[in-house]
Design goal:
The complex is a heterodimer of chains A (122) and B (129). Chain A has helices at residues 17-30, 59-64, 78-83, 87-91, 94-98, 106-115; strands spanning 3-8, 34-39, 73-77, 102-104, 118-121. By secondary structure, chain A is α/β, with parallel strands linked by helices. Chain A has one domain (3-121): 3-Layer(aba) Sandwich (Hypothetical Protein Ychn, Chain: A), CATH 3.40.1260.10. Chain A has a five-stranded parallel sheet, sandwiched between helices. Chain A is globular, with a radius of gyration of 13 Å. In chain B, strand 1 (3-8), helix 1 and strand 2 form a beta-alpha-beta unit. Classes of the chains: A alpha/beta (122), B alpha/beta (129). The A-B interface holds A 1-2, 16-17, 20-21, 23-24, 27-28, 30-33, 117-122 and B 7, 9, 41-43, 81-82, 113-114, 117-118, 120-121, 123, 125-126, 128.
């Protein structure tokens, strides 16, 4: 079993990275790996609730399913949230609550990265 | 001896990632370490498209992947779901879905994320390009 940290660094709909990253994270737990996720850079925008669009997978709902795949540890980069000035929006987003996200400073992020076996960035 | 899994998520035309990946893999082999597999995922699946050709003034690494697989018998696996949605299909899929041509290059093999994660149990290192 490996400890994996998946970094989400892209906004939810500007490209396919966010979806690919989430598929990757969910698949990892199915094969006995331990997964933690970190939202940073534009990735913090994935935590802002998105409306459903017919024909598109709802990223917010899919992220909310992570605890059912035993992804229990979710982290958000405080600096990134500040950069996008959305910390207040995020604080009112249920998703952050549902995922029981922890807020991390840059030095805590580095400690997190050192604590895992592998880091994969999407 | 370390065992490596290499994850390619950048497309062949994304900067110098492909060159760095190939150089890194060669370095791993030269050190006497093992590359368990190279897994192409996300935009990385474009590496496996046989309908690309060398335009002469751009980076073109398809032949380098082939040479690597031939010389060192390294498994080159491509995520089937990620590939199909980007228009890279095998003979079988082309036939089953009424698509005129198959364009998955040899020696890339189709696999699922499951194969990648199963193999990861045996690897000490995972390196992404």
């Amino acid at each position: 079993m490996a400890n994996l940290l998946i970094r989400f660094t892209q906004s939810p709909f500007s490209n396919a990275r966010s979806q690919d990253g989430l598929d990757f994270a969910l698949a990892a737990t199915n094969y006995g790996h331990d997964v933690k996720v970190l939202f940073e850079n534009q990735g913090v925008l994935q935590l802002v609730k998105a409306a459903s669009t017919k024909g598109l997978k709802n990223h917010t709902k899919r992220l909310a399913s992570m605890p059912f795949f035993d992804i229990e540890e979710c982290y958000v980069c405080t600096t990134s949230a500040d950069t996008f000035n959305i910390q207040r929006v995020l604080a009112n987003t249920k998703l952050v609550e549902e995922l029981e996200c922890h807020w991390l400073t840059p030095s805590e992020k580095i400690a997190l990265i050192h604590s895992v076996d592998h880091v994969v960035t999407f | 001896m370390a065992e490596y899994s290499i994850l390619i998520t950048s497309s062949p035309f994304d900067g110098d990632a492909a060159l760095r990946a190939l150089g890194f893999i060669q370095g791993v082999i030269d050190n006497g370490d093992v590359v368990n597999n190279v897994f192409f995922y996300s935009e990385g699946v474009h590496h496996t498209n046989s309908l690309m050709f060398n335009t002469g003034d751009e980076l073109f690494v398809l032949d380098d992947w082939k040479a690597l697989a031939d010389a060192h018998n390294i498994k080159l696996l491509v995520c089937i779901t990620a590939a199909v949605k980007r228009g890279i299909v095998s003979e079988l899929e082309a036939k089953e879905n009424g698509i005129a041509y198959a364009n998955l290059a040899a020696p890339f093999e189709q696999a699922g994320l499951g194969e990648f994660f199963s193999a990861l149990h045996a690897c000490n290192r995972l390196v992404q390009f």
